[in-house]
Specification:
Number of helices: 3
Oligomer: single chain
Distance between the termini: 33 Å
Strand content: over 45%
Shape: globular
Helix content: under 10%
Structural class: mainly beta
Largest sheet: 9 strands, antiparallel
Length: 322
């Protein structure tokens, strides 16, 4: 296998996970364990630039979303669902309000309680006591949720499993990052050289891959990253490093998942999770005329350096940064 992984067998008790790898094990204790609850995103987050805000048009910047509440009683234990707005650079935060049981709607498809929210950029700024002049394009407003049940349980992004929050089967909505974006024009096909760094799944890797990488703009500064291999375009946030370090030959062995790249007024970042639940970050970003060099890593410990050379006669924007 191209990438070593631990095989995980688990029983999902809503927000609580218990792992066991014994074949055909019976769990007589299931009725006695604590059962949780979570808000499941229905559809998608919508808005003019959803889930981001257009920094240049604060009056019309908004996001809207709906959730249904899921538990072992078809959502009946959920008492409230509350949100705060947070601006990390200034340390500011503020309450945006709660929806309680008496205000819930009903999903006609399954009878579960629902709630709908709309947040505007101005509303978030007001809640935090900030103005548009207090924030900078490329930063973000983080929205954090708290769900409380009639059993006295409190669930947040901290005590709800990352898989429950990140994978399409669950879509538990406890946090939204709304980047403050500006118009983005980074799409293109680039000549690429990617070199692995450090240890990959227990083995050192300093191998290189040379080929082409394409950034496909989906809108609102969000990009799908592809690598071009033997005429085939494959979704590949690693920009060729999996070919170099694991000898991957097909789509299934690449990170996949929900990983994308975002450009928020020149600030580059990764969003989403790989198929193994990994997050990705940049260690450094360097612009030198028509060359962009990025040093990235993920929380599995893989890291690589990629240099992308433009082939359209243009230079990369000088403001690209972490």
């Amino acid at each position: 296998m191209k990438k070593l992984r631990y095989k995980i067998c688990f029983l999902f008790g809503l927000a609580l996970f218990f792992s066991a790898c014994e074949k055909d094990r019976v769990f007589p204790e299931f009725a006695d364990i604590e059962h949780g609850a979570y808000p499941r995103l229905l559809g998608s987050i919508t808005g003019p630039n959803a889930p981001s805000f257009n920094y240049n048009d604060p009056e019309n910047a908004s996001i809207t979303f709906m959730v249904e509440f899921y538990d072992d009683q078809n959502g009946a234990t959920v008492d409230s669902y509350c949100w705060t707005a947070n601006h990390a650079p200034s340390g500011s935060s503020g309450d945006l309000g709660c929806v309680t049981r008496s205000q819930f709607g009903v999903n006609p498809a399954n009878g579960r309680p629902t709630a709908t929210f709309t947040f505007t950029l101005q509303q978030a700024l007001d809640a935090m006591g900030l103005t548009i002049e207090d924030v900078i394009g490329g930063e973000a407003i983080d929205f954090y949720a708290t769900l409380t049940t009639n059993r006295g349980q409190v669930f947040t992004r901290f005590n709800t499993n990352a898989i429950t929050q990140g994978q399409p089967a669950f879509r538990a909505l406890f946090q939204i990052r709304s980047n403050l974006i500006c118009p983005s024009e980074l799409a293109g096909v680039f000549d690429a050289v990617t070199t692995g760094q450090g240890v990959w799944a227990g083995s050192p890797c300093s191998s290189s891959w040379t080929g082409q990488v394409e950034w496909v703009h989906e809108g609102n500064g969000v990009y799908t990253i592809k690598s071009v291999v033997e005429g085939n375009e494959l979704n590949d946030i690693s920009m060729g490093s999996y070919y170099a370090c694991y000898g991957v030959t097909g789509q299934s062995g690449l990170p996949n998942g929900t990983l994308k790249l975002t450009d928020a007024c020149g600030k580059l970042a990764f969003i989403g999770l790989s198929q193994w639940g990994e997050t990705y970050t940049f260690n450094s970003i360097t612009v030198n005329g028509n060359q962009l060099t990025v040093d990235w890593a993920n929380d599995y410990g893989e890291t690589a350096v990629t240099t992308l050379t433009r082939t359209d006669g243009k230079n990369w924007p000088e403001n690209l940064r972490l």
